[in-house]
Amino acid sequence: MDTTRLTTTIIAWYDRHARDLPWRAPDASPWAVMVSEFMLQQTPVGRVLEPWRSWLDRWPTPSALAAEPVGEAIRAWGRLGYPRRAQRLHAAAVAIVERHGGEVPADPDALRALPGVGDYTAAAIASFAFGARQVVLDVNVRRVLARLDGGTDALAGSPTAAERTRAAAWLPPQPAAARWSVAAMELGAQLCRANNPSCTDCPVRRDCRWLAAGRPPGPPRRRQLYAGTDRAARGHVLHRLRARDAGERASAAQLTADWPDAAQASKALRSLVADGLVIAEADGYRL
Length: 287
Fold this sequence. Notes:
Blueprint: H1 3-17, H2 30-39, H3 45-58, H4 62-66, H5 70-77, H6 84-100, H7 108-112, H8 119-130, H9 139-148, H10 161-170, H11 177-190, H12 209-212, H13 230-242, H14 252-256, H15 262-274, E1 279-281, E2 284-286
Antiparallel strand pairs: 1-2
């Protein structure tokens, strides 16, 4: 497979069809890119745009966020879900101030040492904020390469060593590497979707081994339920607490009210306290 030709084709498609996302702007700061990567974990772009803008308006630098209590980060996270991301982003901002003079580091190893930053996030920040040549392997890139090169739709769990080796083989030399990573990600998000892929519009459809094989299905995808789950109960409790003024306390009864399963709501509150997302004090609970 001629990877040089295909990466060039996909980058050219991206240059014509990329969504106009603010964290991709040439003047987006490394911190702006980092915030977007935290927010986009398991959350669609459409839900991230306004919270991202509000976050950067309030905390345009790591130092600005680190100067405020972690409870304010959790409050500002709103309904994005998985609020530990806010907790970890605040911890990362504190670490950036303490270890790097308030500047997001460019080195992938230094990025990986920050709270909440794993291999993917470190590679993405290094690539998209600093133009580094890194393998950025999110679920969209994994799906594009699995179908295009591997002829399969069977993605499961974390990236395997074989997937990383394949992705490294596709990574072009500088200066095209970072552009390729975002282009492959965009192709997966817009056309090479998990469900209802738009193969007729794909710029590399003639070379796609999965399409040539008749688009064989992978294993059934588990649908993630939310309503009525423990995670939904945690979201309900946090939402009620965020609605209060900064520093205002609430009783357990106030926070668990209106949830249909009282025992589940109480369990959710206890788990939020255990995770450090809610502070329990003698006169009530606060962020």
